[in-house]
Amino acid sequence: MNWFFITLGYSGLSPKAPGTVGTLVALPLGMLILIYFNAQTLFLSALLISVIAIKSINKYELTSGIHDDKRIVIDELAGMWFALSVAPAISVSLSEVGIFENGFLIQSALSFALFRYFDIAKPSIIGRIDRETKGGLGVMGDDIIAGFAAGILSALIWQGLLYFL
Predict the structure, then answer these.
(1) DSSP string spanning the chain?
(2) What are phi and psi of 68, to 5 degrees?
(3) What is the pTM of this model?
(4) What end-to-end distance do the CA atoms of the chain give, in Å?
(5) Is the pLDDT of residue 86 over 70?
(6) How far is 46 from 33, CA to CA, in rounded Å?
(7) Banded pLDDT at 89 (limits 50, 70, 90)
């Protein structure tokens, strides 16, 4: 169960780009939660999963001796869900998903792209957390901050588009 959880349903076992694959698994799941529930539910789910993941990753690192194994992608789910809960923090029904004016699809795509950028490039505090924080908190922390940064920047870009269009 622990391996299934921290590899996000084994998506982290992808031989190529496991982080991107994990994020691609997390994106539609997060979008569904936004559609059928709301941003608060997605945010609290990401928070709960983050707490559980920190403990699970600590246990895995203790037994395996491997820090930040590339196959662990539950951190991508948490980061992506934090990004989505901040950016398209609007309630849309399934029939309203494709409407341009609500920005749901655009902000979701922006959140994905920006999260992957921040997660890979690790600028500023994101990289510092990745390098200096050990254990599950280090594995999860950089992605959580990357998720918030991606969500905020996505929302700002969307607001800028609305202003100029």
Answers:
(1) -HHHHHTTTTGGG-SS-HHHHHHHHHHHHHHHHHHHS-HHHHHHHHHHHHHHHHHHHHHHHHHH--SS-TT--HHHHHHHHHHHHHTT-S---GGGTT-GGG-HHHHHHHHHHHHHHHHHH--HHHHHHHHH--HHHHHHHHHHHHHHHHHHHHHHHHHHHHHH-
(2) 55, 50
(3) 0.94
(4) 48
(5) yes
(6) 11
(7) low
Residue 131 contacts residue 107 (beta carbons within 8 Å): no
Domain ranges of the chain: 2-164
Residue with tokens 């997660």: 119
Give the C-alpha distances (Å, rounded to integers) separating 128 from 3, 57, 72, 121, 142: 27, 19, 19, 12, 8
pLDDT > 90: percent of the chain: 84
